[in-house]
Design a protein that fits this description.
By secondary structure, this protein is mainly alpha-helical. The protein has helices at 2-32, 44-64, 73-76, 80-103, 110-120, 125-152, 159-171, 176-196, 200-219, 228-231, 236-260. The chain has one domain. It is globular, with a radius of gyration of 19 Å. Keywords: Membrane, Transmembrane, Transmembrane helix.
Amino acid sequence: MKKNNSLILSVMCYIVVFIMIQFGISLVALYLDDSIKHPASASPTALSLSSAVASIVIIGLFLWRKWSPISRHYLQQHPWGVLVWTILAALGAILPLQWIYEQLNITVADNVKQLFDSILGSRWGYLALGILAPVAEELVFRGAILRCLLAYFNNRLPWIPIVVSALLFGAVHANLAQFVNASTMGLLLGWLYYRTHSVVPGVIFHWANNTVAYAMYVLMPDLNDGQLIDLFHGDNKLMYMGLLCSLLVLLPSLFQLNKRMGNEGRTH
């Protein structure tokens, strides 16, 4: 009983630390940028660097305290097949997840959109959101939080810890639109962690997803305010063909992952 209570307290601690570091460093950045009274006027550089620094602090703290223990053992198993299929799964999931998100008719608040536009538009944007954020968030929500929740349930009923960790992952984004998106993706990330007991596949999946988002922002800026249909020039038939092609990538990728993760590198 005492062990179980300790695990729950640890989960609460990890969430609080994650939020406090992000919030605290953001305030410092806004103060140094002389925009603390008007956050909307903060420079893109200040916003992207504060996000990057927060991720670095989180990564360093969770590794130093061994809240998210890691080792080279998983990579020493040469799980290259798993990692390749993980990237393909991430690419195949982008359009279906966007379509589901749009069917729920949830819009991103203007201040949230402005924040992401500022970060993505900065020269430090990819470092912050494409590289550091996936590592930091996987260490916290899978390597620390999900690991504790799985231990709490003694690795029985794994979907309960996976769902809970996914909902927590969505909740810390602090807005409904991102909650839906992050929670859905969190289910896949949690499954990857449970099957491999490593954050590596999750980091790869997260990195691929964020990299595509960044690339689309840079290469197709006209679509940033649009819907999925706009990517296909308003052609519904073409859009559904795109969704079908994505599913033809996603579903075999999940099948292959389910098959391979039982055989490649089952430990941290």
